[in-house]
Amino acid sequence: MGRKAKPIEEQIRLLQKRGMRVDDPRKATEILLEIGWFRMSLYWFPFETRYPDMGDSTHRFRDGTTFRDALLLYAFDFNLRHMLLKPLERIETAFRTYMIFHVSTRYPDSPAWFADRKVVGAEQAKSFERVIYNPLKRQNAHIMLHHRRFPKDKFAPAWKTLEFMTLGTMCNLYESLTSSQLRQDIARHFGVHQEGVFTQYMDVIRSLRNLCAHGNVLYSFRPPVLRRGPAWGGQQPPCNLAGALGVMEHFLGMISPRLTTEYRDSLSSLLHQFAATPGTRHVLSRISGFRLKEKNNSNSSTPAQSSASAE
Question: Is the CB of residue 82 less than 8 Å from the CB of residue 214?
Fold first, then answer.
């Protein structure tokens, strides 16, 4: 839309001038008023002829691109973000709980091991107290109550304190553990036998969690190059959304087979519902990395290894 705001009618004419077919201008008007030009542009971007060139000033669309293509892609992303929050929270909770339990029982005489320089790195212990714990002590009702009951305690124990930490903070604590045996034990609990692979996997979980929690774009998510591990059956995970979801599915399999089945069915249903045009199918296949069956091949959808197939 450039550097000047335009009325909705002009926005629609601009899309049409660039080669997008708008079959229902009234519906397009409603969508642009509800979602906005910029957010919708994130979902018609992959339909441009020079995608992923963000410097293309013409913004011409591929032949046959429709407003519905972009809207379906937006709807897929919207629904996927909300669907993933439940399994991602289960993974985060399981990681937090096991790490608290395992380290706390290994160091029973250091209930506040997160600030113990024998347990975590010196810089981590120092920054945790200053940056994280002191504000928590002033603002969190549960931690404040602990210090009223036990005024001589410098810290509340880990099983209280770490319940209020972000996943990012927990990952940083894991990486700062001075005992490699502890780090390996935690990784193996989740079916990963190489500490470096586990760290990369948790980075993927953290990234997915943040994208979903803050309403960011999912379809074009590209995790860093991952090492071979148990996700994807020991194969090299692809650097796309399907590859990241394969990592998530590995954790779900270690935590709850029922939740894994629920996740696979939900993803397959989403793909069936929103990969409804050739345009959206192209994006979800080529960019997101999902293996999609041809629509005329079958009336069923079957999740594939670390990805999903849908008709």
Answer: no
